Amino acid sequence: MPxxxxxxxxxxxxxxxxxxxxxxxxxxxxxxxxxxxxxVNLVLGFLCGWVIMGKRAxxxxxAAVNNxxxxxxxxxxxxxxxxxxxxxxxxxxRHRYDGPFEALLAIFQLGVxxxxxxxxxxxxxxxxIGALLSGxxxxxxxxxxx
Length: 146
Known about the structure:
The protein is mainly alpha-helical and 146 residues long. The protein has one domain (4-144). The chain has helices at 4-27, 37-53, 61-92, 100-116, 121-144. Helix 1 (4-27) packs antiparallel against helix 2, helix 1 (4-27) packs antiparallel against helix 5 (121-144) and helix 3 (61-92) packs across helix 4. It is elongated and about 55 Å long. 32% of the residues are buried.
């Protein structure tokens, strides 16, 4: 059921996804075409906010911070998984893998490689502050608009 807390959580995680996507593109390889990278992350931010954070709102301020951390952690996980899967399919269409199990293993190897790009102080700070604010805004929306 649509609620204000679900909408606020979805919008907050979309903002976090947009900011972090821009930082990844700035820190990435120069001249690399990222295609739909930001748009895919925005959709993932919306879904993680709506499904994961929105339904857990209204349980108190401590739970709100934990809810924000859970939402951002799930956004990072699903972002790495989806982007790794896309890259695996792109490489598989160029016949880079000998079999299906090698391709499935490559999803996780690519996800770890993409995760290394997230280890920079400004990205970690953005994720942490975004998690805190997303949780608190979602809790406030749950209390204000029932």
